Amino acid sequence: MTLYPTNENIGSMPETKAAEGTVANKQLVETLLRSRLFRDYESVFTKATGLPLALRPLEYWQLEHHQKTNENRFCALLAEKPATLAVCLQSHAEIVQHTGARPCTETCPFGLTETAVPVRLGEKTIGFLRIGQVLRRSAIKSDKERAASKLKECGVPFAGTIRKAWEMTPIIPKEKYSAIVRLLTFFAEQLSALINQIVLEQQNAEPPLVQKAREYIERHKMEPLSLAAVAQASGASVFHFCKVFKKTTGLRFTDYVARVRLEDAKNQLANPSRRISEVAYDVGFQSLTQFNRMFKRVFGQSPTEFRAQLHSGHRKTRAA
Question: In the prediction, which pLDDT does 26 show?
Fold first, then answer.
């Protein structure tokens, strides 16, 4: 099992490190774009829904569907005008900013619905599946007034070709649109599994001391683990071990151990007869408070919420 660092505020990083992260994310997403899995799914998705599907890296500052098959004609026209393009790019930035570990659906200033579905490498978001530029109900007078008002602010009249293009925007009812987003969530999980597998294969050449450390931690993860003991087991000094381990895994020793234990906890929480406190201590945490805090930090939800979601999913499966 290989674990990866959580997202950090790129603005707080040194410029060179942020730039390296941007390049790395772009390369990972390009790998997925070239995969048979993505190309096949994109083709079927567009044929089934009539919507364009885009996969973009975390740091992508262009219109996500520009020049793609089935691009919304209204949005394509907005891209031709600097003032309206700026509004669209700002909306793009906001939906990315608001998207965490789960999909985020928002309405742009011109009244069109868009969704970003995160694709993750471990706990780190590397990119988004993007769909949308649709209406979720038939347009009413207030919808047109809203679009016209925003266009007027940009110095563009809501008339002629641009009005006709807006009125031709696909209409997908809320329930159907939510189902489409759910399908994309499943697909994002497949893409995440694929890129994790690819990175894992690339990391097989990691330094021997890190391999030894991982193996030692895996064998003793339910026991108290000290940095000195793991460093000794890997055959390195504490200083050298910390330096190489952090560089290779992207995690400090204590964070890595916590994540190993949390993965075990997720499996144990699937058993409804196990109390959360029992699971916490069984996997090696010395404090229930620490366990709850780390679980939410890594997985974006508390152990109680995770268990409720898991069992809800099982009930739906049985009902189907």
Answer: 86
Residue 100: pLDDT band with limits 50, 70, 90: confident
Q: What is the pLDDT of residues 199-248, one digit of tens each?
A: 887 766 678 899 899 999 999 999 999 999 999 999 999 999 999 999 88
Residue from 67, 66, 70, 104 nearest 88 by CA: 66
pTM for the whole thing?
Answer: 0.58
Higher pLDDT, 133 or 15: 133
Q: Are 113 and 134 in contact (CB under 8 A)?
A: yes
Tokens of residue 12, six digits: 């707080």
Tokens encoding 269? 């929480």
DSSP reduced 3-state for 76: helix
Angle at 122 between CA 266 and CA 264, to 5 degrees: 20
The amino acid at 62: Q
- Beta strands (DSSP E) in the chain are 54-57, 104-107, 113-121, 124-134
Q: Measured between alpha carbons, how far is 218 from 247 in angstroms, rounded to an integer?
A: 20
Q: Are 1 and 263 in contact (CB under 8 A)?
A: yes
Cα–Cα separations (whole angstroms), residue 203 to 194, 196, 198, 247, 291: 14, 10, 9, 12, 28
The CA–CA distances, whole Å, from 170 to 68, 75, 158, 159 equal 16, 12, 18, 19
DSSP assignment letter at 107:
E
Quick one: which H or E segment has residue 98? helix 82-98
User: pLDDT band for position 291 (50/70/90)?
Assistant: very high
Burial degree of 107 (CB within 10 A; 0-12, 13-18, 19+): middle
For residue 55, what are the β-bridge partners?
A: 129
What phi and psi, each to the nearest 5 degrees, are found at residue 235? 80, 30
Listed ranges 52-61, 144-153, 294-303; the one with the highest mean pLDDT:
144-153
